[in-house]
User: Fold this.
Amino acid sequence: MENLRYDWTIEELKAIYNKPLLDLVYEAATVHRENFNAREVQRSTLLSIKTGGCVEDCAYCPQAARYSTGVNTHKLLPVETVLEAAQKAKDDGSSRFCMGAAWREVRDNRDFDKVIDMVKGVSDMGLEVCSTLGMITDEQAKKLKDAGLDAYNHNLDTSEEYYKEIISTREYDNRLQSIENTRKAGITVCSGGIIGMGESVEDRMGLIQTLSSLNPHPESVPINILVPVEGTPLENCEKISVWEMVRMVATARIVFQKSLVRLSAGRKDLTDVEQGFCFLAGANSIFAGDELLTTPNPAFNADKELFETLGLVNMPSKKIKEVAPV
Ligand code: SAM
Ligand code: DTB
Ligand code: SF4
Assistant:
């Protein structure tokens, strides 16, 4: 039975998050099984198509120009390089390819034309295509949609209240507007956040509340654990307990019943058992590949073994085209 709600209160969400852990995981696992084949996990490969030198001041981000993090900056990659990486991701079992650029916003210039060509090329491979390019207008979103873009990643990151502690160069409303522009263009929305930035449980539930007030809900909800990077203001943030991640994933699963909940940054620091708990709690998507954007991710072989151990299989791409008869 479909039980999607858009009017959760913080109190209701906190009550879910704070349930006895195993009751919470059991409930989330039940919702997961009612809505999905719980053995299927989407593999999405990330590629940083333009790295570093970003003008924004997001306190967690190694790509902000104002922090010295030693990240290897580069301009927009050539289209062919990106298409080669996408082909490799497809061969390695990914069904989605996500291109990330360290931009504050999309600009109507030659770089954007190149991104359009990348989207077309990846889409023609039968992969689902996602990109995350910063703030976006409705016209730019339409152009991406016409090129074959399936999803746009634009995270709200945390609650509206805590956002001000993390970013000063843009506002929460700017993010919401870009999400709306994406939605209006007919592109699916990928939006989630980060835990472990010193926020309270109330802030975490504030993030879930705002995301769940969007109708329709974001089709995918990435949950990142902060990867503390030297040189960023959050480099010394205290590590969170894995149980907080399990609670966050389970709460997201119970609220976003039809959406993909993605175990995102921070996976490298989780053991197989810890990741197993997150999958049981309803996570059904991961970022695959040795690197996220600039930080390490579990190696291909480690994920292969993990999938075998847990009995997980790759979720197929929703857009594989019929193979033409020879
Ligand atoms: N510049 C674009 C933007 O901000 O929307 C796209 C790329 S940005 C790096 C994408 C997302 O990565 C951020 O919204 C944030 O949620 C996540 N992220 C960045 N640095 C991170 C870190 N150190 N740990 C965890 N997540 C991080
Ligand atoms: C998301 O929620 N997490 C990804 C993706 N969307 C673009 C990015 C994580 C980045 C982690 C830090 C880095 O590798 O630079
Ligand atoms: Fe720039 Fe995105 Fe990093 Fe913020 S999160 S500094 S906008 S690349």
